[in-house]
Write a structure and sequence with these properties.
Number of domains: 1
Number of strands: 10
CATH superfamily: P-loop containing nucleotide triphosphate hydrolases
Oligomer: single chain
Shape: globular
């Protein structure tokens, strides 16, 4: 059984349906990327999986259904989201944002250890621990958003456009950190990303969305080698 199994996922906003029966899976410790143009349904997929919007179809994580659960319950099951556009609590300090990420945990010593850990991975967070998150740069806020999501110690980390609006150097550092988390912790990653080149370097498998449907899937290496896919969808 896969760590995450999604079957027939449909979701949208009000009467407007965005997703039309998506099937996808993520294995234990795997890195999977979802590619597609703007409007393909990538962010809607992440919002549905994380409990932020209702869906039909089935979402099963580690053998248990996530259907009908809200965001807190989904995090409690071991799935955490880094939302598009950072999503930090702008009026809370950096350290308080990290503590919010561990709100469902009760191991105070472990929480302190994880705060120290992620502040060492992202030293700027330690330097600005008492600073309001809204005053950070875009790159610093993205680092905080990733660290906050990891404070719940998820088994699956969902990342929605982590490179959006960031300088190339920050993007490279961020993707290197995600790769380290995957290797060191065995944390599975499901990434929505428009930077296809970086995403394919990190991922083992790819799903390509077009207008709310999966139009291609397979090994990342195959996507790199398929000239028609490269030209039509990946801009490579």
């Amino acid at each position: 059984m896969s760590l995450l199994e999604v079957t027939g996922l449909t979701a949208g906003y009000g009467p407007a349906r965005v997703l039309h029966g998506l099937d996808l899976r993520v294995e234990e410790g795997e890195v999977v990327v979802v590619l597609g143009a703007n409007g393909a349904g990538k962010t809607t997929t992440m919002r549905a999986l994380s409990g932020l919007i209702p869906h039909t179809g089935t979402v099963v994580f580690d053998g248990r259904s996530l259907d009908g659960l809200g965001p807190d319950a989904v995090v409690g099951r071991g799935v955490s989201l880094v939302p598009q556009g950072r999503g930090t609590f702008s009026h809370l300090t950096v350290l308080d944002n990290l503590r919010v990420g561990a709100a469902l945990r009760r191991d105070k010593a472990g929480i302190r250890e994880d705060v120290d850990r992620w502040c060492s991975v992202f030293p700027v967070l330690a330097e600005r621990g008492g600073q309001e998150a809204g005053t950070l740069s875009g790159g610093e806020q993205q680092m905080l958003a990733v660290a906050r999501a990891l404070m719940s110690r998820p088994r699956l980390l969902l990342c929605d456009e982590p490179s959006l609006g960031l300088a190339p150097r920050i993007v490279s550092e961020l993707f290197a950190t995600l790769a380290d988390v995957n290797r060191a912790e065995g944390t599975a990653l499901l990434l929505v990303e428009q930077n296809a080149d970086l995403a394919l370097d990190l991922a083992s498998r790819v799903y390509l969305l077009e207008v709310g449907r999966v139009v291609a899937e397979g090994e990342a290496a195959r996507f790199r080698e398929d000239e028609s896919i490269r030209r039509a969808y990946l801009g490579l």
